[in-house]
Amino acid sequence: MTSNSTTNLRPTQPRAPIELVLFDLLTALLDSWTLWNSVAGSEHMGRTWRMAYLKATYGCGSYRPYEELVAEAAIEVGLGRQAAAELEARWSELQPWAEAKAVLAALKPHYKLGVVTNCSERLGHIAADLLGVPFDVVVTSEKAGFYKPDPAPYRMALEMLGVAPANAVFVAGSAYDLFGTEKVGLPTIWHNRIGLTAPPGAPAPLLTRPTLESLPADLSSIPVVA
Known about the structure:
Blueprint (H helix, E strand, L loop, with lengths): L19 E4 L6 E2 H9 L2 H18 L5 H11 L4 H9 L5 E2 L3 H8 L4 E6 L3 H9 L7 E4 H4 L6 H11 L6 E5 L4 H8 L3 E4 L15 E3 L5 H7 L5
Helix pairs in contact: 1-2, 1-4, 2-3, 3-4
């Protein structure tokens, strides 16, 4: 099921000043769907493979090699291990969403920026470098030892920069992130690019947006404690 609605849920209580904006990488900032579909040979098979992989990472908890999970998911849906090898070989073909670089450039003078991603160290840093903006922190699941939505990756990013959850915002690409960010007390904006439906029981995001274009204005309009 999909939903293309845009939700504007302004916070009712003032919040601490925002110092840090953290992002999911492979869905919120990068269009990883198109590459997966290309490798799989169709949108249907690409999404089927991607969902099998996402289910594995969300249920994994403690880190297992990212590349192994991707390969296991490819085998599970009938694509074979060679699909995972091709995806890895073409990893640098990942493309940022059209407005992502401009939005990051607009935010950089005003906030610390970081990434928290379900990925290996090697592939995570390759992907982060495609944005062309120097991040203040990049936390991969391999580095944290756990896959999101376990709280550990989000907490590691905050602790590495010495920023309290109340002084940060997370921009999610998947509503599953909301389960983890709520445990950390990290306000979350859901960049729901392809119109997915949130899973049952998912906490409500601060805002839901179909693109990143309004993010600078959204952040600046969040009421802060005087």
